[in-house]
Amino acid sequence: MSRGVSQVHAENLYFFHSSTAIIIKTAHGRGGYVRNVYISNVTLAGVDTTTRFDGNFSQHPHALYDPNALPVIEMITVKDAIGDHTKVAGLLKGIDGDTFSSCLLIEY
């Protein structure tokens, strides 16, 4: 991501036999933004990790990226996620020097 994604609303989702259901990936040099994402009523069956924010996803599309660019990650809500055999509800890895703000995991 070097541009942005916003105004995403997803509900009544079903994930099965997966390592991760919901993932937001970014890193130093990516820039851009992910904001105003609302995900609700998630059912999981055999999913290891419900939600993962990964601030160290370091694959870059080309060699001319700006290594100092930081992404904006804000206003992310994941609500009402239920499942069986889930090992991790939320795995959140930030970025040194950056802020992920208003990210909520509700009623897990």
TrEMBL record:
| Domain of life (superkingdom) | Eukaryota
Protein name (database record): Polygalacturonase
